[in-house]
């Protein structure tokens, strides 16, 4: 059945998993996103970079349906995310999981219960199976010995890693990571990078990673998108971004500001 | 709940006893206190206490979850926050509020009985007889219905304030204050109209 002409349809390309078309969003007077266009294929790893407050997290939340665009369209796995009602989002949430910037762990649950939560909610009832997968996920982030602790007793980096374990446990097709490396020491940061690479290679997971860590970009990304003034300012491979003559891009990736001491 | 119920019952008895004595029917004080506690004071006091204690806790708890993105995390994991955070609290309050109202009424009556029996030399049989004669099942039912309705009001307002919290710790504080203030006001206003409605269904002094 053909869709009515007025209703936008997802791309016909079967490889395309996530598609944002001319997405606009404003909060109050401030326009955060001024026409974002972005396409992601299955199994791709995209790093989203850009100055703070430019809408990287907002872009991510559009993909998982936590924020709806003022105009434009978001498609995930052929579903028109911004046209779905809140209670119709379940299929999207099965395909996509997310690590929040502040980890967003449930304070009243232990590390183990936090990580098990999405698994149990997705219908896995076998306790031994849950335990096994929780341990597996926590081992991937090097946290297996902290099962019984509550989130307020963890350091910032440990909370983040617990959040990552919770995001990967359901083996979603796509994982959105909001600053997975921030607050981690260099070794901890590499553990996360290697884990993201492993998820991509072993399970073909599609990932979007918001990060400020240039080292990890060159380690893990297939493509890099730079958000600047509400638009995608640059989109290309890590090698292309390194070679880009654009001064805004170069200043950003090399950490140069106009401020002098 | 016990303390508010008991002391309200006690002070109510203390004040009305003196006035009733002027007219010579101080023995009916039990009946008046009992009906008033069942129909109005019990449910309203229980409601106000619960709004301050439980409503505030609900708003603060859910508000903190909201501003730390735990509510968004629930959504992302395919769990609707209303199903997970509001519904269980709603059911729990619907069940527990009538009991709390009953507790408040009971201790109010016990205190009232003790004031008349030990504070004044009124034979306790008179108190009990008048109280039992003039308190109907309808009076108790009204108290329970009110408790039930107040429980729903407090939960809905408090959870809504929690889920609407924004702007970090300040937002949680504002939400918690609003939850208590709005629930208490709505509760008092609804109580008036509920009294009229329930009095229409169960008229006072009909039996």
- What is the number of independent domains of chain B? 1
> Runs of chain A with pLDDT <50, length 5+?
1-5
CATH class of the domain at 16-106 and 174-254 in chain A: Alpha Beta
Provide the spatial order of strands within the biggest beta sheet of chain A: 6-7-8-3-9-10
- The helix content of chain B is over 70%
CATH architecture of the domain at 16-106 and 174-254 in chain A: 3-Layer(aba) Sandwich
Largest sheet: number of strands, sense, barrel closure of chain A: 6 strands, mixed
Textual characterization of the structure:
- The complex is a heterodimer of chains A (261) and B (207).
- Chain A is an alpha/beta fold and 261 residues long.
- Chain A is 35% helix and 24% strand.
- Chain A has helices spanning 56-63, 90-95, 111-121, 127-140, 156-168, 186-203, 214-220, 238-243, 247-254, and strands at residues 16-27, 30-41, 45-49, 71-76, 79-80, 96-99, 174-178, 206-210, 223-228, 231-236.
- Chain A is globular and about 50 Å long.
- Chain B has 207 residues and is an all-alpha fold.
- Chain B has one domain (2-201).
- Chain B is built from seven helices and no strands.
- The radius of gyration of chain B is 20 Å and the shape is elongated.
- Chain B starts with a helix and ends in a 6-residue tail after the last helix.
- The A-B interface holds A 61, 64-66, 86-87, 89-90, 93-94, 96-98, 100-102, 104-107, 117-118, 121-122 and B 64-65, 68-70, 72-73, 75-80.
